């Protein structure tokens, strides 16, 4: 297989469902060697096996992205198995709803750990490995529209995703002279298992979300994967430190 990501070694977190899964499949189809990190071992091995059966090159490493040692192991495994690291998609995230007044301290810390600290751990170990591999490379962090706009019902998630964009810019400046790039995705309403859960639980809530979506539809994980593939490929060599919207004009 060959394509835009031919021979690149890429790490993806949260790669067993939704946007992470779509990117893992797309990256492998584009010629990358993909190292998937996620908590669900059975599902992870299944996904990696499906990619290999389709002719791609994939490896699964059980990973809790909120644990620094496990993120370090994910990167170390990619390098030890494939000899280098060329890029990463720090995609894992999620968490409970709740306003500032409703959010308990445990949920606050859990949300920051999953959505922000995990990205810090990723960058901390990915960037040195990419630089050491030579030839430049790139990292994409999934920030979401919650990184650029407020939401009274998602206080902790909102704060964490704003932090991801700030962290992305800081990291991009830190490594700008090395040929390594760091960008963030401002993802809007995307049709993922999380969104399908909202639809099945409360169709009226789903309709309310769609009513403020200018395009009138949710985006797809494959559309996000296509943009991520571009940002991790060589064609986007002058794009770094950016927060790039893929949101159907939701933040326009």
UniProtKB/TrEMBL annotation:
GO terms for molecular function: oxidoreductase activity. CDD domains: SDR_c (cd05233). Pfam families: adh_short_C2 (PF13561). SUPFAM superfamilies: NAD(P)-binding Rossmann-fold domains. Keywords: Oxidoreductase. InterPro entries: NAD(P)-bd_dom_sf, Sc_DH/Rdtase_CS, SDR_fam. Transmembrane segments: none annotated. Belongs to the short-chain dehydrogenases/reductases (SDR) family. This is NAD(P)-dependent dehydrogenase (Short-subunit alcohol dehydrogenase family). It comes from Micromonospora pisi.
């Amino acid at each position: 297989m060959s394509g835009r990501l031919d021979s690149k070694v890429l790490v993806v977190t949260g790669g067993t469902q939704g946007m992470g899964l779509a990117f893992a499949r797309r990256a492998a189809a584009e010629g990358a060697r993909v190292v998937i990190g996620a908590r669900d071992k059975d599902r992870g091995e299944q996904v990696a096996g499906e990619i290999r059966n389709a002719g791609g090159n994939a490896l699964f490493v059980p990973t809790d992205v909120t644990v620094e040692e496990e993120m370090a192991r994910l990167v170390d495994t990619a390098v030890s198995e494939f000899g280098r690291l060329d890029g990463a998609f720090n995609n894992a995230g999620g968490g409970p709803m709740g306003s500032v007044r409703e959010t308990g301290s445990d949920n606050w810390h859990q949300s920051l750990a999953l959505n922000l600290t995990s990205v810090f751990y990723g960058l901390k170990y990915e960037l040195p490995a990419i630089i050491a591999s030579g030839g430049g490379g790139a990292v994409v962090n999934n920030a979401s529209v919650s990184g650029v706009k407020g939401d009274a019902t998602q206080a902790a998630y909102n704060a964490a995703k704003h932090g991801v964009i700030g962290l992305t810019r800081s990291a991009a400046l830190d490594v700008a002279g090395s040929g390594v790039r760091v960008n963030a995705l401002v993802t809007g309403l995307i049709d993922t298992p999380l969104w399908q859960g909202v639809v099945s639980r409360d169709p009226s809530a789903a309709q309310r979300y769609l009513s403020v979506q200018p395009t009138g539809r949710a985006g797809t994980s494959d559309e996000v994967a296509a943009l991520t593939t571009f940002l991790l490929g060589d064609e986007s060599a002058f794009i770094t430190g950016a927060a790039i919207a893929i949101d159907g004009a939701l933040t326009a």
